[in-house]
Amino acid sequence: MRMDSILQLLPELNAAFLETLLMVGISLSAAFFLGLPLGILLYVTDRGLILENSWVRQGAGVVVNLIRSIPFIILLVFLIPFTHFLLGTTIGPVAASVALSVAAIPFYARIVESAARDIDPGVIEAAVATGASPWLIIRDIILPEMTPTLITGLTITAVSLISYSAMAGTIGGGGVGDLAIRYGYYRYDNVIMFTTIILLVLLVQLIQFGGDRFAKRISKKY
Q1: Cβ–Cβ < 8 Å for 60, 41
Q2: Cα(82)–Cα(99) distance, rounded to whole angstroms?
Q3: In a designed cystine with 151, which of 22, 46, 111, 215 is the match (CB 3.0 to 4.6 A)?
Q4: 49 Cβ contact list (under 8 Å, min separation 6)
Q5: How many of the other CB atoms lie within 10 Å of CB of 194?
């Protein structure tokens, strides 16, 4: 297949690119809104902290470690029944977003927990000594202190999700990965394969550049 054939496939290529953005957008949102509180929970329930609870921490830690230990391609297949139960289908970018979200939430939660551990313990101890409630400490100290790292963590998560979304194409998840499999691999078309690789590389570079710039800008405010 030559350049004229690529031009013919341009509408499909655009659609695949938008499907990749959709998958990454849904799963990244799930990672932020569910992974952020999970990561904070892992931190604040640790020994000697404001909501110490060994049972909660150990239970959440086991679940997080269990999901993170499963290779993503296996997780995709394992979650097919759950995805079908939840959405009534296992095909398409929204269906693929279920497995992507399940993988992204514990991934980002560990980043959040690590960011929280970099906070000076003395700041939290001083807040406890003044009688601040756990919620107040989380809202006014922990979250502001680790905001730049949270943005960097989101960038790392987004880049990882792009590579995961390409794997989702192997089971009909759509996106650029699906296009690469159907035209580049099955039809032995190196031009399409290289085109999809370039698209993914450019997307990763754009996200990395934007995330780094935004994190630096936020860090100057704190």
Answers
A1: yes
A2: 9
A3: 215
A4: 43, 124
A5: 12
Secondary structure (3-state) at 15: helix
Please provide residue 141's backbone torsions phi and psi, each rounded to the nearest 5 degrees. Answer: -120, -60
Here the tokens at position 122 are: 């003395």
Q: Using CA atoms in the order 60, 63, 69, 72, what is the torsion angle rounded to 10 degrees?
A: -120
Assigned token pair, 178: 């699906």
The domain segmentation of the chain, as residue ranges, is: 3-219
| Cβ pair 148, 214 in contact under 8 A | no
102 φ/ψ angles, rounded to the nearest 5 degrees: -60, -40
pTM flag (> 0.85):
yes
- Amino acid letter at 56? V
Report the CATH superfamily, name and number, of domain 3-219.
MetI-like (1.10.3720.10)
Which residue's structure tokens are 């960038």? Answer: 155
85-119 confidence digits (pLDDT tens)? 999 988 889 999 999 999 999 999 999 999 999 99
